[in-house]
Amino acid sequence: MRWLRWAALAGALALAGCAVAPVAELAASAAARQDTGPQAVIGAMALDPQVEAQILAIDPLRVTDREVREVLALGPTPRIVALHGGIYPVHLLMDSFARFLVGMGYPPHKLRHPGDGRRSHSPYENSLQIAGLVAWYYEHEGLMPMMVGHSQGGIQLVKVLHDLAGDGVDRIPVWNPRTDAAEPRVTIIDPFSGAERPVVGLKIGYASVVASGGAALLLPNQWSMVRRLRTIPDSVGEFTGYALAVDLVAWDLPGAAARYQAAGAAQVRNVQLPADYSHVYVAATSHLARNPVLRDWINAYAPGQVPPPSADAGSSENILWAADVWFHIKKHWVLEAQKVVQARRDLARRQTALDRDSAAGSVPTRPELAQDALH
């Protein structure tokens, strides 16, 4: 009898194991088939109507610390895709920049890779992979990521922009960060229109690079960028290139720094940082957010409008770069969030009209609804 009881128990466990495997597979399959489109992404966001109204009232060029922490951080927030330099352990400098952003009020989970939690990407990752990752974020989260690159990471960032513009490529696979693998498709469902569109042709709102160029262009993985680094395609709306006044690594000297220029309609800025800034340590900025005086100065900063902080305020190393990048991150954070809020309100109005027409016995046809969604 004891032997029969053990046999029965073993059989039950075997049957349970057989039952569990299909359930796990179904769950994974369901996650992989996550619905996308306006209703599934934009409409499904849980946002407080009061927060939505406050987001729409923010001036993108004058964002206060209170608005960051009490309004923007509670609403839709785009991811920031950071690319660090190529020499170990320079990635720690971009970790410092991530801690700066968190100290200034940026939600920390929007700075981390959803797969392994890293805060920045290597310049040795395939640029097509990063472009496909940007597309995945946009499709699944409803906000276009922003990008920041340091040193060789800046070169790789510009390469991603050229990929998205279709410069030398015509197909970019969507890259899933949860599985860390390419999906068998080169198109996404636009989270605003619901229409299918290729990854090639997507446009990022904001990107910037600092201390990029020079010796890193001699590396085989960057040879294709020798003639393309300083030309910014239309796959980004606003781009800033920061160069140090003296940067022997990036081959920048006073008055001789190569300037970035737009290939088309992109808004391109060139900013020269002081000569005492370091190529390696320019992204070391976490200390700035811990100093209340310097944090207030950074929050009040606007390009060309705020006098430098006093010398007795504490170590302000790299503050000009940090403040200028933070100003533009806040600006595009607001623009992306306002776009989402407006789209949610448009969806609600269309649904109200649909319900009214349905109650009156006049329901729009599917082509009419699709055309309305595109507008």
Describe the 3D structure.
The chain has 375 residues and is of the alpha/beta class. The protein has a domain at 78-338: Rossmann fold (3-Layer(aba) Sandwich), CATH 3.40.50. The chain is built from eleven helices and eleven strands. The strands form four sheets. A five-stranded parallel beta sheet has the order 1-2-7-9-11, with helices on both faces. Strands 3-4 form a two-stranded antiparallel sheet. A hairpin with a 4-residue loop joins strand 3 and strand 4 (181-182). Helix 3 (49-57) packs across helix 10 and helix 9 (292-300) packs across helix 10. The longest helix is centred in the last third of the chain and has 41 residues, at 319-359. It is globular and about 70 Å long.
Total count of helical runs of at least 4 residues:
11
How many whole angstroms does the radius of gyration measure? 24 Å
What's the helix-strand series?
HHHHEHHEHEEEEEEEEEHHHH
Most strands sheet:
5 strands, parallel
Shape: globular
Number of strands: 11
For the biggest β-sheet, the strand order reads 1-2-7-9-11
Q: Spans with pLDDT under 50 lasting ≥5 residues? A: 1-33, 366-371
Q: What's the CATH architecture name of the domain at 78-338?
A: 3-Layer(aba) Sandwich
Beta-strand percentage range:
5-15%
CATH topology name of the domain at 78-338, in short, is Rossmann fold
Structural class: alpha/beta
CATH class placement of the domain at 78-338: Alpha Beta
What attributes does this structure have?
single chain, two-stranded antiparallel ribbon, 12% strand, Rossmann fold, alpha/beta, 375 residues, five-stranded parallel β-sheet
